[in-house]
Amino acid sequence: MRAQAYFQQRVACLKKVFGDSRLSEVTVKEIARFQAERATKVSPATVNRDLSVLKGMFTKAIEWGYALHNPVKRVKFLRETGQREWFLSKEEVKTLLEQCSPWLRPLVALALHTGMRRGELFGLTWHDVDFRANCLHLDSERTKSGRGRKIPMNTSSPAILEGIRASSPVPRPARRSESG
């Protein structure tokens, strides 16, 4: 979901509960009540995102002189149980690849085989591909975490990359393993 739409969704949820209240009336107790009730309907991560938006709103209100303190700072966020895992079925993968335009299909296939994000894929260069070591090298500027990483290639990934290289109109540099 785009950031703006996500933020608007969070604000709409908060507005339903706190919209008619003055900032001074929003207490730790009211926020804790919202947190408990919301936790019965959505995941702890979603509740925490709601509280993060509310916390940011209070921070701005203080900065602009509309509030004296931020009651959200005194509310303990919920423990998040971990990341959601979801895997496409073979049928879903087939449908996804069939719906892709021809130029995009190999990139989506590579993403499926490596777990790379869109920005990582689009930033990939031939210098990042190590066919000899059978891995892809990402530097810290191109990863979400800000840490470089090495992505192992499965048996399908090299063939996908070779297909991309063969169909590319861009002159091909030497393979990483060939150039040293």
Task: List its salient traits.
180 residues; mainly alpha; hpI Integrase, Chain A; 2 domains; 3-stranded antiparallel beta sheet; 8 helices; 3 strands
- SS strand fraction: 5-15%
Give the helix proportion (percent range).
Answer: 40-55%
Strand order of the largest sheet: 1-2-3
What general form does the structure show? Answer: elongated
Find the structural class using helix and strand composition.
mainly alpha
Low-confidence stretches: none
Query: Under CATH, the topology of the largest domain is which?
Result: hpI Integrase, Chain A
CATH level 1 name of the largest domain:
Mainly Alpha
How does this model look, in words?
- The chain is elongated and about 65 Å long.
- The protein folds into 2 domains: 3-74, no CATH class; 90-171, hpI Integrase, Chain A, CATH 1.10.443.
- The chain has helices spanning 3-18, 28-39, 44-63, 90-99, 105-114, 118-123, 157-167, 176-179, and strands spanning 129-130, 135-138, 149-152.
- The chain has 8 helices and 3 strands; from the N terminus they run H-H-H-H-H-H-E-E-E-H-H.
- It has a 3-stranded antiparallel beta sheet with strand order 1-2-3, with no helix packed on it.
- With 180 residues, it is mainly α.
- The model has no long low-confidence stretch (mean pLDDT 89).
- 49% of the residues lie in helices and 6% in strands.
